[in-house]
């Protein structure tokens, strides 16, 4: 029987690489995305194109309102401006409280229903914005909790949280993805992308992505406005 | 400054007791409920009455679709029948995959935005349905993960997950709540409650609740249909 994996898919560079990686490892991919009032909605358009092109088995978009939570982040509160890249080591205003925890929890529920024991998330602790929920020790703690939370875990079917990009730089992720045939033109990373999915080139996310293509020594296919 | 607490509020007996308990401990209560397609929607009507009566500071209802997850449980899939109480030690079909993890994750996000370091959840490992995400070791693992997930945790403002009913029987919870002035007539526990919030008296949840009132030696105020 083919192994199933739930892959968190944002439409960005990292999660798209995760889809390709999970497929290359023989998993049947169930992609999960979220419509949580993010301002950069171009990413949802992108992810729909990506899952179609990459022929994932099933794509689920979970829509939820989180007004109370959303007000804390520039990504979801239009009154907080998304700043240009700061690089000062502080957790930036684009941090969405508990976002990866909420996403992984939903993925956990779906994995249990599907009978999947594997969840992929494209976080990295290299070339990232300093969000606490991107660190390996966080992923490990989540996996530990997940195995106590679920019927599957209790019955001995261990759930694995894969963060395969954890120790890769953006450049290494790009090189890996290109080897796996990822078409990065389809991906949108920008926090301020326009309706056509074109990038600003100035925000945190653009800064890391641009640097990644330069260091990888490949042409940046990103359309900028 | 008054301490803030996020309290998960389902409209049932346990979470309503938690609201009273958090208030008695001096917390300003922020109640959080979920509209996730549960069939027993009478609980949302109940929780609205409860938070009003108990004068909580703010009430947030998070609405989300979780079709893929929901199909796995009798509480959210109308094609699976909610059975009468079985009491056979198996995890019953009313188990919703990863439910408490999803709820606690959302509470975590809200707590961080509010600057709250305390979250209350009314789970108990006594007189319960055998759901894995009601056990103390699960709650402990969640708290550990939460402190690695969040900006607050990273900055040393420890988040506490309170499960104050964990070691109480239903009867002890009822006695505690009555001392704190909880009006249990307002609460709905039944998985098959009708539109007026009246209970079936036969499902798992009703069975534990009925037994609780009998053992507590107080009259059961629950309206049954």
From TrEMBL, chains A, B:
It comes from the Bacteria. Pathway: Purine metabolism; 7-cyano-7-deazaguanine biosynthesis. Pfam families: QueC. Its cofactor is Zn(2+). It is an enzyme of class 6 (ligase). It catalyses: 7-carboxy-7-carbaguanine + NH4(+) + 2 ATP = 7-cyano-7-carbaguanine + 2 AMP + 2 diphosphate + 2 H(+). Catalyzes the ATP-dependent conversion of 7-carboxy-7-deazaguanine (CDG) to 7-cyano-7-deazaguanine (preQ(0)). Belongs to the QueC family. This is 7-cyano-7-deazaguanine synthase. It comes from Piscirickettsia litoralis.
């Amino acid at each position: 029987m083919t192994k199933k994996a739930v892959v968190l898919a944002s439409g960005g560079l990292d999660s798209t690489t995760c889809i390709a990686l999970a497929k290359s490892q023989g998993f049947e991919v169930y992609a999960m995305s979220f419509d949580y009032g993010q301002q950069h909605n171009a990413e949802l358009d992108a992810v729909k194109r990506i899952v179609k092109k990459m022929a994932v088995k099933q794509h689920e978009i979970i829509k939820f309102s989180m007004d109370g939570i959303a007000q804390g982040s520039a990504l979801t509160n239009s009154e907080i401006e998304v700043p240009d890249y700061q690089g000062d080591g502080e957790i930036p205003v684009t941090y969405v409280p508990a976002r990866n925890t909420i996403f992984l929890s939903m993925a956990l529920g779906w994995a249990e229903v599907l009978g999947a024991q594997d969840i992929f998330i494209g976080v990295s602790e290299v070339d990232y914005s300093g969000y606490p929920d991107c660190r390996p020790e966080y992923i490990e703690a989540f996996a530990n909790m997940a195995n106590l939370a679920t019927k599957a875990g209790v019955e001995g079917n261990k759930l694995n949280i894969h963060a395969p990009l954890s120790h890769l730089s953006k450049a290494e992720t790009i090189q890996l993805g290109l080897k796996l045939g990822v078409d990065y033109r389809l991906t949108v990373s920008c926090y301020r992308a326009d309706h056509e999915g074109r990038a600003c080139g100035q925000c945190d996310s653009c800064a890391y992505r641009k640097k990644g293509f330069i260091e990888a020594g490949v042409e940046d296919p990103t359309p900028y406005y």
